[in-house]
Design brief:
This protein has 13 helices and four strands. By secondary structure, the protein is of the alpha/beta class. It is globular and about 50 Å long.
């Protein structure tokens, strides 16, 4: 089987074992490649009537139209839940009680992600008989570019063992809009791309992990290896049922 068929089969099997013919997938839709691919895979595996998209801007989201577009493209039921008031309320309460004037970056970047995951599980509870997806890819997992118990949480993870390059190829194979498949990854909060923050590219990361570090500048190789080592504690906390493509069975099982 090709990658698409393998991933679709895995999702079908997961839902067969952990639900029934009516169990639905609840997916946070950001408008980026990962959530678009996960939603498309779930539609292929379960049918669009069993897929629910949730858009969760924190106030104004500049690329919210991309998220709406993928929901329309796939024809899935979707909700838009703005978390701004919830984020403001919890921030105000904590800052008042702890007498803090300016919240640290760790709070401002992680709290919205955790509120979004709480929102997904809230909707799953109301809709009933649902499983919540974790949309993160392997490149993000390796570098720790996720929030524990936020976007790093979920019931099943279709992309957890796929590099960014593989997610792009999968999106193209699924027939998704090309601009969404190749969209530059960003957290949408600081104005920088993921790669700007790292100091290396996802392509360079993949080469180092796949024993092709001779193709990467030595300084970046050291930077990547240091990053992988320092973040291992965080990565090891993840234990979500994840799709493993056949060509990686020996690496991840």
């Amino acid at each position: 089987m090709n990658l698409k068929n393998e991933a679709v089969f895995w999702i079908k099997e997961y839902f067969d074992k952990n639900g029934n013919e009516n169990t639905k997938a609840v997916i946070g839709i950001s408008g980026g490649k990962d959530s678009s691919v996960v939603a498309s895979l779930c539609c292929a595996a379960l049918g669009k009537d069993r897929v629910i998209g949730v858009l969760m801007p924190n106030g104004i989201q500049k690329d919210i139209q991309d998220a709406k577009r993928i929901c329309e493209f796939l024809g899935i039921k979707n909700y838009t839940i703005n978390i701004a008031q919830a984020y403001k309320a919890i921030s105000t309460e904590i800052s008042d009680k702890l007498n803090i004037q300016n919240m640290p970056e760790q709070f401002t970047s992680n709290m919205p992600a955790r509120l979004r995951m709480a929102t997904l599980y809230g909707i799953a509870a109301i809709e009933s008989n649902c499983r919540v997806s974790c949309n993160g890819n392997l490149s993000e997992r390796l570098t720790g570019f996720f929030t524990l118990w936020g976007d790093g949480a979920g019931d099943f993870a279709p992309l957890a063992n796929l590099f960014v390059s593989e997610v792009v190829k999968l999106g193209v194979e699924l027939g998704l809009p090309e601009d969404l498949c190749t969209k530059i990854p960003s957290d949408g909060m600081c104005g920088k791309t993921d790669e700007d923050k790292y100091g290396f590219t996802y392509d360079e990361l993949e080469k180092v992990v796949c024993n092709k570090e001779h193709e990467v500048d030595s300084k970046k190789v050291n930077l990547i290896k240091t990053k992988l080592k320092n973040i291992s504690f965080k990565r090891n906390l993840l234990n979500i049922p994840s799709f493993v493509p056949s060509n990686k069975k020996e690496l991840f099982e």
